[in-house]
Amino acid sequence: MSELQAFFAQNVKADVTENFIVSERFKGQDGKPIPWKLRTMTEAENEEIRKSATTRVKQKRGTYAAETNHNEYMVKLVVASVVHPDLKNAELQKSYGVMGADMLLKEMLFPGEYGKLAGKVVEMNGFDEDINDLMDEAKN
Description:
Blueprint: E1 17-20, E2 36-39, H1 43-52, E3 54-58, E4 64-68, H2 70-81, E5 82-84, H3 90-96, H4 101-108, H5 111-124, H6 131-139
Antiparallel strand pairs: 1-2, 2-5, 3-4
């Protein structure tokens, strides 16, 4: 295989998944914490998420600027990365009295647990910067 062929789609590991203990509160029948399954995403997926969290804001003199809601961006990034549990499962959402994967995530987790999960998602997707730097980047 030539060096160039190492970059061909069929030769690159595309989806990376990892099990991660988000919280000690979610336990299986054996009493041990159940890991969440997380996945990486492509830049194209990330771009779609960023776009969905971006709005046009009217500026002075009738011009518009793109403004990304960094909290919305982060929750959508995390939701897109969670494979298990299935945050889109209607029964799971109903058990927490919410509709929507983003609302479920916010209801299921304590703030520190959410921060831990978000940090792992950021790390898995190759962002070397501090999570606050990522949020600042998303704003621009």
